[in-house]
Amino acid sequence: MLESYVSPLLMSYVNRYIKNLKPSDLQLSLWGGDVVLSKLDLRLDVLEQELKLPFTFLSGHIHELRIHVPWTKLSSEPVVITINTMECILKLRDGVMDDNESCTSSSTNPSASESSKAASKPRRVQQAPSDPDLPPGYVQSLIRRVVNNVNIVVNNLILKYVEDDIVLSVNITSAECYTVDDLWDRAFMDIVGEFGE
Q1: CB atoms within 10 A of CB 195
Q2: 3-state SS class at 23
Q3: Tens of pLDDT along 56-87?
Q4: N or C: which terminus of the chain carries fewer CB neighbours within 10 A?
Q5: Cα 59 off chain centre by
Q6: How many CB atoms lie within 10 A of CB 6?
């Protein structure tokens, strides 16, 4: 019963960023606790919307994606998503140089002022979509714990910036995203309240 709620939830998050993901592969392996997928393409348009960088993505690939679900300890251990070797090729957005050059003059470009306003707004924490079929009580609380405690580990992130015949490459050996307590120590959190507007 629990897998019928957790598996689609994880699938929706992963499928949002991955192009060529096969739902059958994920669901068959997920109940075993571990999923290993390889040679995946990233959804570049979603990354650009989410990150709002002055770059455009030319390509993005993941060599290996691992998802570990501790089914017997879901209420106390996080789901761990590990990305092994991710490569992204970027280039400066068209018009960004023009915008930077026009900043020195007293130009009032409406699109530039709108984008700066959007960048200055604080970002809301993304919540799990509310499902009316989700039973109240323990299962709903457990799903909230799973969503709020997903750990993301990236091993070997390769970023390449391309401009004409110049290529700048940055290799990050390890990056990790996890929940912390009020002292910034790693912790397993149980967030009860809902976030306001």
Answers
A1: 9
A2: helix
A3: 999 999 999 998 888 778 778 898 999 999 99
A4: C
A5: 16
A6: 20
